[in-house]
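WP5 quarterly update. Target: N-Dimethylarginine dimethylaminohydrolase. Source organism: Actinoplanes derwentensis. Length: 273 aa.
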Amino acid sequence: MERLPRNRTYLMCPPQHFTVEYAINPWMDTTAAVDADLAVRQWDKLRTTLTGLGHVVHVLDPVPGLPDMVYSANGAFSVDGTVYGARFRYPQRANEAVEHRTFYQRGDDWRFVAPEHVNEGEGDFAYLPNAYGGIVLAGYGFRTDPAAHAEAQEVLGRPVISLKLVDPAFYHLDTALAALDDRHVTYYPGAFSPASQRILAQLFPDAVLADRADAEAFGLNLVSDGRHVILNTEAVAMGHKVREAGYLPVHVELSELKRGGGSVKCAVAELRA
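Structure tokens (predicted):
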């Protein structure tokens, strides 16, 4: 099957203020210093890789005191011009949601809906517009409350499939599952509860299955335009798997962002107007 790209629009935030000042996931180590200059260079390489593939990248201004703003995927979740805002689990990140809300409310292209329930945006939501008429896959277990799934369904008008995450190392859905195009996914089964594994197998019998080593390399924290799959350089085996499935892997070095528990997808929010 020929894999065809689709032009996308993304939102990213440069890591000028990125540090690991606190530990809110198993990957964060406050004793290991972050190379801020290297983080910015790696981030910019990711940005130029996306624009070089023909995609539009909007940039959100970083704010001092919010070191995790670089993980822009967590700030909201948009579908067809409607934006379901984030409400972060941890107070250290709470003000990021305000910055994202301001971004969307500046223009006339978006209908922004503030959440009542805790959720961390695209960190725990993925949209597949051509699967079953358009469905949202939603993770819970560590960061997002299950009640946010029902709230998102009402806000977005799309069916939401709840998936339980059970391994603290894969605390967001986007560390355990990724959309490869508008109807195909890749995921690591061991990150999910047995029931959620059965749901995924039923919905996506042709999924590209990852193993734990792929997930630990943040190989599932990827961005795909339907043909080009952008992964970090450590995810070599995952690159082979997506190539075997007909996609073209594009590797980008993001070693510094991994110190905070994220990689390619965490740094990139898709804007679906």
